[in-house]
Amino acid sequence: MIGVGVIGSVHAAILKERGELCAVCDIDASKLKKYADIPVYTDFKTMTEAEKPDVVHICTPHYLHAEMIIFALSRNINVLCEKPLCIKKEDIPAILEAEKSSKARLGVCLQNRYNKENVFVKEYLKDKRVICAVGQVCWHRTKEYYQSAKWRGKLRTEGGGVLINQALHTLDLLQYFAGMPEKITASVSDLTLKDCIEVEDTAVIQSVKGAGLTLYASNGCAVDMPVLISVKTENELIQILPGAVLINGVLQTPDGESGTVRGKECYGSSHEILIADFYRSIENKTEFPINGEEAAKVVRLILSAYESKGEPVDV
């Protein structure tokens, strides 16, 4: 595992329970002390060359993902990477080419697709035409949050703000349900955190051609509120709530596998389910559903939104 910070600790706990964590790496040696029972490294290339692992989990700051993915795939090492896939448009084709040329698999942690309510809705929509999908993310992030790690809130290292970090999962679900729009318009701004970040804390995305989707996202809310998603078909209004679904006002109780909530509540409970599915795909030599091309969709949407500045842009 590369990176043992906040999200890396979630992966580590799962891998330890599975008995599959063989080595960890972090540039901050102080974070490695609790992994005294396995080899530890401060350089990811040294670790991958020395350990020759079956899988690397990339849990580093956003700006490091592309380089690390390409390095591991070039050595035919399976990769499970935290979101986002990357933060630069030019990195997308480089990653996809590395994936195509490798004997290994690439998976990306868009774990909310595995939430039982989202699994239920995706299956429910398979023979229906979606007119639009709307998402709302209203969370609370403080100055202290952004000061907790040097890479947070910086354009070069985080790649953006609320869109590419907190709201990415919701935007991914909107396109997962409604499809990818051809053209969008977007606006981003910093309404509450001007004194500590150089990225946006508030964003709006609206499709103007192709699949219909709308996203409202902000880190400036007074508290963390539940994410809300509404999907409109020709005959139904589907509302997705935490753990439940309403179809035309009637409560559904989706059955499905449930995982343990690890780390922050907003991560959801599906990291464990996604990781198990990724390892299953390796063992069975089957396709993992959230590969490079699939994970690139939401990144293309976000990077197009940053380019928009209130004007229509192609995705």
3D structure, described in words:
The radius of gyration is 19 Å and the shape is globular. Helix 3 runs parallel beside helix 4 (91-101). The two termini are 33 Å apart. The protein has 2 domains: 6-109, Rossmann fold, CATH 3.40.50; 112-249 and 256-265 and 289-314, Dihydrodipicolinate Reductase, domain 2, CATH 3.30.360. The chain is α/β, with parallel strands linked by helices and 315 residues long. The strands form 3 sheets. Strands 13-12-11-10-6-9-8-7-14 form a 9-stranded mixed β-sheet. It has helices spanning 6-18, 44-51, 65-74, 91-101, 116-124, 143-147, 155-158, 168-178, 271-284, 292-308; strands at residues 24-25, 40-41, 55-58, 78-82, 106-109, 130-138, 181-189, 202-210, 212-218, 228-233, 237-241, 244-247, 250-252, 313-314. The chain is built from 10 helices and 14 strands. The mean pLDDT is 94. 32% of the residues lie in helices and 23% in strands.
List keywords for this structure.
single chain; nine-stranded mixed beta sheet; three-stranded parallel beta sheet; Dihydrodipicolinate Reductase, domain 2; 315 residues; 23% strand; globular; 2 domains; Rossmann fold; 32% helix; alpha/beta
